[in-house]
Specification:
The complex is a heterodimer of chains A (194) and B (803).
Chain A lengths: L16 E7 L2 E7 L5 H8 L18 E4 L2 E4 L12 E3 L13 H8 L9 H14 L5 H7 L11 H17 L22
Chain B lengths: L25 H6 L14 E7 L5 E7 L1 H4 L4 E6 H5 L27 E2 L5 E7 L2 H7 L4 E6 L25 E9 L2 H7 L2 E12 L8 E7 L4 E6 L4 H12 L6 E4 L15 H13 L3 E4 L2 H7 L3 E12 L5 E13 L25 E10 L13 H19 L3 H8 L8 E2 L5 E2 L4 H12 L1 H13 L4 E11 L7 H6 L8 E7 L5 E5 L8 H13 L6 E4 L17 H28 L6 E4 L2 E4 L2 E7 H10 L11 E7 L8 E11 L5 E11 L6 H20 L31 E4 L17 H18 L13 H22 L1
Parallel strand pairs in B: 1-12, 10-11, 14-15, 20-21, 27-28
Antiparallel strand pairs in B: 1-5, 2-4, 2-6, 3-5, 7-15, 8-13, 9-10, 9-12, 13-14, 16-17, 18-26, 19-20, 19-25, 22-23, 23-24, 26-27
The chains are: A alpha+beta (194), B alpha+beta (803).
Amino acid sequence: MVSPAKDQAPMPRASVARISVNVDGVDHRDEVEPRLLLVHYLRDTLGRTGTPIGCDTGNCGACTVDLDGATVKSCQVLAVQADGGRVTTIQGLAGPDGAWHPLQTAFHEQHALQCGYCTPGMIMAARDLLRETPDPTPEQVRDALEGNLCRCTGYQNIVRAVLAAAAELRRQGAPEPRGQGVDVPQVSGQEAPA
Amino acid sequence: MSTGMTGRTEQAPVREVGRARTRKEDARLVTGQTTWTDNMTVPGLLHVAILRSPLAHARIERVDASPALEREGVVAVFTGADLAAGLGSLPCAWQVTEDMILPEHPAVAVDEVRYVGDPVAVVVARDRYAAADALEDVWVDYEPLPPVLDLEAALAEDAPLVHADKGSNRCYTWPLVSGDYETARGQADVVLRRRHHQQRLIPNAMEPRACVVVPVPSTGEYTLYSSTQIPHIVRIMMALTTGIPEQKLRVVAPDVGGGFGSKLQVYGEDAICLALARTLGQPVKWTESRSESYQAQHHGRGQIQDIELAATSDGRLLGMKADILADMGAYLMIITPGTPLLGAFMYPGIYKMDAYDFHCTGVFTTRTPTDAYRGAGRPEATFAIERTMDELAAELGLDPLELRRRNWIRHEEFPFTTVAGLTYDSGDYAAATDRATALFGYADLRAEQRARHANADPVRLGIGVSTYTEMCGLAPSRILGSLRYAAGGWEAASIRVLATGKVEVITGTSPHGQGHVTAWSQIAADVLGVPFEDVEVMHGDTRVAPQGMDTYGSRSLVIGGIAVHEAALKVVAKARKLAAHLLEASEDDLDFADGVFSVRGSPDARKTIQEVAFAAFAAHDLPEGMEPTLNAEHLLDPDNFSYPHGTHLCAVEVDTETGAVAIRSYVCVDDVGRVVNPMIVEGQVHGGVAQGIAQALYEEAVYDDAGNLVSGTMADYLVPAAPDLPDLVTDRTETPATSNPLGVKGVGEAGTIASTPAVVNAIMDALRPLGVRDVRMPCTPERIWRAVREAADSESSRKEDAS
């Protein structure tokens, strides 16, 4: 059954919220439904499809991004909760010259990905670990990645890659500070969701 | 090598095959520049949501979609009856016996639902939220019918029927009988019977399924983007199901986030979306949620195995009997009935015996259909033989490795035709086992185990053995035909050397994580003598790679990769003719090395393959009868399956007070023949072993008595995370396959096939001295704790009886 007349009518917006979010260094202003998930805002509204969705229960971690210096599963956060905030996704990790983050390099060199679907979330979660713990043990890496599921690798090469990236970051002597080194617009005092 | 003769002084280049090349695939994947199907959008895209049955079995009395149609943003709603006219039954390609029951399988249920998740209605809306919301306003009246869940009860005379019109829940019974088992049994000193349960598993590729259909109404052309392992098979099957002419249908598998068999399927959602795009004349997209996928993607395993081994008192196997009940679920999908039969030939494993008697009965239940999941029939078979061999060793008081040594096919006996009728081309089980036991420290661990048993350590050490082989590389077409499979198992490759000397390889395989782009580049670069970087591999789009049989059953390298090798040889053969023509020499006088044709004895008379490619492109001066451009195609149909093998050893610590299992060490020595890329091979082993451990310890699709999928979300189904899995020690022996020119064997499923029995054997090895006879998979702490308690209780009651 096809709806008779309204199939080309504009979608009504019962209520919308205005948000302003910086995503991977670019400011965006949008009107969104209050219920819109951050991951759908990134993917469907902004076209930032580097962050994939692997589940609907917050278990798989594929959609992990950085929101104001803390990792969040972007399927568990509303877009409105990111208002005034700064989101870094896998697409914003490379340097301005396109140079890969050491984690991206290490995942490639250590064969820490096969299908690659979990990789964006895995790398974002590992980045969070290395900010807190620059020289982790293999066990600490495994524990830190508990919220990120991979079905291809059995995790062994992911652990290797994170340890290799940690060594490279230490060698560079500049463990990444919380939040990015780029100019951060003043965040409107909003707490990052847990 | 002819480097001296051509006057070149540099070292011979490292050959690509055998190198641990990092993958070409990775750059997009680590930077998020991906093309997952759900990423796609096109102008006018409509979103599809599917209403699914909340009941395991019910008659549909009424579907009222009108409230949903009233909702803002909703474009259309379709019931099963609405769609039935334009969609045929979903296909099953494997009529395993002449009298197999093959029920109708509508993409959307019309009269009756037969599992929780069976589609009932389809909503099309302007965005994904509106579509999901509107499902709440499709009203369905159901008349519940009895669920059918128990495989044995389902076969009883008066059992309620999944398909009432078919008269039985018995889908088929398929025999494989070789030798005289009753005679073997009669001669045996020991006859050991065991029942094994293969729980249902949910494959859990990390990318849920999605499809996008873009129609061109004026020409009747359709492009289906689908998260599939099998774009070529989907194209044929969708043409048959929807009536869209095959030449008007293009199927694209973009980046696909894992499959493990779950995307080796012809799913109703693809057919539904094609039908919707045809009716509405607009593009549509459907993306499943993970929880939806748990109901809507096929499951794996789901068998009860009654195994009997007949042996002499010194441990020589005389015969084996296997009676299998296999859960089909509610409908037969693409290879549902054949999946357990892929194991039928593997129950004898690596062992010699005189007689084998196998029967498998497929049983309909009111659950999600089953089909191929990593290993597909062979993990079940390998578990049965390897678990039962350990039980037999215990019965005979033999070390489990010694029992295996007494029965396995010796290296010098290859090629060896097994009791199941397969001819294993190559293998060296002793070499792999010796390497594994050395890496594992087998003797030391056995000594520690004895000491801890003697001290009644509450944390017991157990050692599990699995000496597996498997048949993969699916498959020789004539064998598939003899097994009544509808299609063949060949593979296609074509190679174009472009005007600038760069190379395009087009493969009919459809990778979704396996690294074919890298490995096929290595194979082609070696034969053509071109740089690895100059090769581009294209796949997964029926317009780009029009021929192929896709990726499953560890077939891609041994068939598709060899097809690339053969096509490259054809390119070189054509280039040789042209080079000889250009150099005014005889073909026989030309050497070809490192991409250069040179005339023997005239070092300056040389043409690179790139120069030859340009000459072929320009076509100014070709030999008589030669066609322009430097291209070749090869379609390869293998003569035999591929038989990788190996020895996996697992040591577990089992806490008898809590039931907790910790894997202390895991050693796998796999023999996958010659290796194209050792890094990729190791990755396949890691991931395969992880999935096998997951079956042993963690995963199960649990249904309640009403037929509800209780483990229905990722929060309820334990996909192991990093802390749940051990570091593996991997190594290889290398016995080249004799069935293909590169000597390669399949590796995609080997780890999964090998590891499950190794882990469970280790647990049983730890607990057997306590009187535990079996623990069902997954061996959860609760199950182990209960098994230990029950064994202790029966031990004390036995003592009481004796006193």
